């Protein structure tokens, strides 16, 4: 028997969240294996999965070509290639009254209409939902509803009342474009169903077509599909009952089986429909908005004019020859690739930000061009950093340029609103981020579906410490009394693995905007995000990249806020305007400070790991910082590139010579590959990759955990390098590539970050007061809590004054002191529980006249009793009411009148009360209260109060420990300010702080396992250990941990835990 | 007046069977009570559940059950009647005994306290004993863990002074914060502040409590009303299938009975435990008989242990009731077999059938939403009308287990070759029960078939061959 041809026209991927049980790529590959002529991806009111399916087809095609080439090269006959199924784009809908149907796009017009319909249904419903009514299809155009789309009616499995009317209604909407989907799924009465639908179709004159209601690519996904159903219905599986499908027939069935189940005519009909659908995603064209070019200009002429003006500004003394040459080369490339509109779109946004005084900084492959420097998109002078545009944009690789622009985090919203205003909501939307199942969420949802109790699930996820590896799971289960061998636990583990990386919902990308010339919703559906007034498209950044559509990343960066605030304060203090460009580029004291790892608060190079690298790398030039920013990352660390680099850097000569081409790639990093770009260049130069393959490698690196087709490239890399006698080198490179996967950090980004690191270091070195103010006012951000930032500043001689209602502004502020350094007065916002509005009310009322007493303050600033209490607890009322106890008594005695709604919360004339005098609190009590209200204390470090007790037990201060020699045995104790377990290390790192300084403690796995509790819980930690001192980096290797937390009494400290 | 406050700090956990492993009772995902093993691992009340579990892997977690705690407190009140007729409940975890009038019976204060301690210990309980002339002061002392007796009202203030202010009821978080920032940590600090100033800041309730604790204002407490006839019940924390596991709860009830009997100077020669099962099954009875009337808990306990040692439970028990009718003349009323026979005419018929054929031979069916035929119905004592089955082609009679059918040339035989009438209907479901329940994953193609005798059969084929599962009537 000849197998019939077949096209599947009704197939859901896992982008029909918690319904479909296969990834789009799995469906495509299976359809090809089954020899389907076409496959329609018809997710419910969504096209979120189609780009992945489309990309999967392209990958299969590339794979075929590669195999063919290899065979040809080896002189073998060409391998037989299964034809690829055609991809049809469609969507399944259910109207509010229950009517269900599928629409399939025939052409670009139909696709646009489909996207518009999805957008309409999604935009009027809550995030993740949609709503569609008959009226939405009723607007009868001459050709019917949703022109350019075919429709399949999805009848109920059993005859239902009114179905004939439904069919007739649809037939009127889709004249000559409607089919009845006959889905024979081995139900109780397939024969009856077939007969019924044939009769209905004959009556209404509507043809029938076979379809499969596909929910999974293979039948073995049945358990997973049932689990998804249970999760969706929030019920355990055993109670899900008839909500589960009765069997696994909803998979891509073999054509043999289809031939047995369906009449031949119905199968043949599928091909007729498929032939009517010619739309291909590749035909989507992105059109840039026109308004970025003033009339009388072309894109190119406008870009050139703005660039030339910028260059004159940047190089007032004349444009250097090299710059001129680079600019011309860049223009040639931009023109060839037609990227002008992209640069101008970014330029327009940056211009807006600048006009509003919002600090911004571009980064990414295209940002390090002279053009971007001239346009002010970046402050990194490409000359200064030896950066080459072509290093980042390749002529051969057809990859879109990448410019991310970071804005001050507190003001990015203004930029976003500008974009919406300028282009309208119909033309601008954020890219989506697909939120996927991770280990914990998978265990939780699958656990619930299998009927595990909340307690067991919480127990399991709690017992998986953030440093545990997946292999630890059976051990953890056993510790909870759950046998890893029991059938149910095995199902739990297996299904949790299977569901990992399944999409759960669409969220908004952090800032990737898509802006179009025409209505965006005809290009891709737009739906609501969780945030009010935000809309996202249904594709994520990988999808956009696959299709070559461009996005502009509008990101938020706290450090820019800090720099802008600090520069404003410095400008005021120095009496002249100071910008980032005014900071001297080669300031020796700044580099000295960096070399000593004195970098608390400095952008990017403040973490423990970065600090331990600084004294070894000893950055003296800007490019050193670029490397420094990139080197303490999983990629270089896993690849074992750090030590060779340090060696080369110290000797100032390459550590290896391989071949002239490779050496050229690696020259700037002493023969050691550090950056992602270098790895790609190496693949081309040393492993025989084509430019196109190198681009695929880059994409695979970014998503290897999700899609896992990196293996192939690694094989090729190994093979290619082995041919060149570089096997060992290839191994290290492969490990490095894996590290990149998680936190790919290209040189183009490192350069921009390095500039911000340098600027913030300069501020810390030369204007520590302004830097502290700006940091405190931009919290939360960075690696350190306010308490540590203040401690660090005070160790550097900055005088910090407490918040005070008679002196503090809303934010932190510099207090000038004649000719000496200014002091820092903490702002009212530093007081816990005081909101911006409250702080502003206090300052505004104070401006009119000084306070008479607390009553006056409460009355005129309109404060309620809890706000007054907060101020008293923070000791901010000292000037009005004396010490904290006295102030609390006064404040709590204020009498209220009426209800809270009334403007006057406190009586104007209090009933008199006899004065009561409180004894001043002891120092210890004050410190405890400071921590409770402010998170830090300016009086004395809490550990100082315990110093005698600590000394009795032979714990020494941090400063003495740092002075002790290598390998000395020592006891130290301090407040735990940070716990960290980097993915690349086995040990846990703990940072301790006492009154004399900060210590880094390394806890080896053996100790960490044995003393898990001390490690997780202690806020005041004692460590018995040994000093390890190497090239100026001192850390303590813990042998034993002691929890001294009870000594702290009520002191409330917090640690920041990273993983 | 002299008040003894028994504070059962671990009551929230005491209502569950004792646990050698770390165990906690939680309320809204927060630990309210931890046993010794859990405390040793660093788990304290107030900790989040996730944190507690991280500290003590394998932690046994009980959701707090306030009603059960109240039941236990009431049972304890019955037991306490053995000491004094004036007992008050102070939920959630305190019991107040006025012992001024009964000290002499028990040979003085220390002797009484020792008896209380021993009596509690016998029940596996421990309480902090606060002792003061006012009930509130006794409670505060107990909460602060101070067991030193304060017998004279004049000493009250000095005894209470070192007690932390957190013992006071109804102080909200804001008030506690204000007190802390005033440097007021102990009741003594509070006594030092002017009453008018306190009232202005913290409201009347605080001053009222201080006055009541100090005996300056009366503090009437509702006395616990003891039952006239002893029938107390305890719900078990989890269904119990092993008789030995009942011991824990049963002893608690016997202790209550002993106290109740002691207060009435009477005893019992027999008492009965009713063991209640689920699903309307008749409760089982476990009778304890004694050679003579007694009120001695240790005797009760001994007999209980012997009886339980040889008793086999017919079904898991979820609640036990202890009745001791012999101490009081009133006869107990039997509970009906079903709550609502009178309302339904069918019930008497079923009852008669059961009487003739045996209870196990008569049952109802209820529909269960499950694709697997074996699991789509369940035997119940009494079917509820109204549950609708799906309109699927299903036979009325299902065999208890599918019966294997021989086949010839791929055609199943049952009195001859079967003729296929309809199908296949494919059913693949139940993988989640695989390896756990009687019916696990099924993967079958069902057919309606006709045998040479003209009977319509429901047969299926799976990996193992052909099976007969049902008959169409």
From TrEMBL, chain A:
<comment type="function">
    <text>DNA polymerase involved in damage-induced mutagenesis and translesion synthesis (TLS). It is not the major replicative DNA polymerase.</text>
</comment>
<dbReference type="InterPro" id="IPR003141">
    <property type="entry name" value="Pol/His_phosphatase_N"/>
</dbReference>
<keyword id="KW-0548">Nucleotidyltransferase</keyword>
<protein>
    <recommendedName>
        <fullName>Error-prone DNA polymerase</fullName>
        <ecNumber>2.7.7.7</ecNumber>
    </recommendedName>
</protein>
<dbReference type="Pfam" id="PF01336">
    <property type="entry name" value="tRNA_anti-codon"/>
</dbReference>
<dbReference type="Pfam" id="PF14579">
    <property type="entry name" value="HHH_6"/>
</dbReference>
<dbReference type="Pfam" id="PF17657">
    <property type="entry name" value="DNA_pol3_finger"/>
</dbReference>
<keyword id="KW-0808">Transferase</keyword>
<feature type="domain" description="Polymerase/histidinol phosphatase N-terminal">
    <location>
        <begin position="7"/>
        <end position="97"/>
    </location>
</feature>
<keyword id="KW-0963">Cytoplasm</keyword>
<dbReference type="InterPro" id="IPR011708">
    <property type="entry name" value="DNA_pol3_alpha_NTPase_dom"/>
</dbReference>
<dbReference type="Pfam" id="PF07733">
    <property type="entry name" value="DNA_pol3_alpha"/>
</dbReference>
<comment type="similarity">
    <text>Belongs to the DNA polymerase type-C family. DnaE2 subfamily.</text>
</comment>
<keyword id="KW-0234">DNA repair</keyword>
<dbReference type="Pfam" id="PF02811">
    <property type="entry name" value="PHP"/>
</dbReference>
<keyword id="KW-0239">DNA-directed DNA polymerase</keyword>
<dbReference type="InterPro" id="IPR023073">
    <property type="entry name" value="DnaE2"/>
</dbReference>
<keyword id="KW-0227">DNA damage</keyword>
<dbReference type="InterPro" id="IPR004013">
    <property type="entry name" value="PHP_dom"/>
</dbReference>
<dbReference type="InterPro" id="IPR040982">
    <property type="entry name" value="DNA_pol3_finger"/>
</dbReference>
<dbReference type="InterPro" id="IPR029460">
    <property type="entry name" value="DNAPol_HHH"/>
</dbReference>
<keyword id="KW-0235">DNA replication</keyword>
TrEMBL record, chain B:
<protein>
    <submittedName>
        <fullName>DNA polymerase Y family protein</fullName>
    </submittedName>
</protein>
<dbReference type="InterPro" id="IPR043128">
    <property type="entry name" value="Rev_trsase/Diguanyl_cyclase"/>
</dbReference>
<dbReference type="InterPro" id="IPR001126">
    <property type="entry name" value="UmuC"/>
</dbReference>
<dbReference type="Pfam" id="PF00817">
    <property type="entry name" value="IMS"/>
</dbReference>
<keyword id="KW-0227">DNA damage</keyword>
<dbReference type="InterPro" id="IPR050356">
    <property type="entry name" value="SulA_CellDiv_inhibitor"/>
</dbReference>
<comment type="similarity">
    <text>Belongs to the DNA polymerase type-Y family.</text>
</comment>
<feature type="domain" description="UmuC">
    <location>
        <begin position="24"/>
        <end position="140"/>
    </location>
</feature>
<dbReference type="InterPro" id="IPR043502">
    <property type="entry name" value="DNA/RNA_pol_sf"/>
</dbReference>
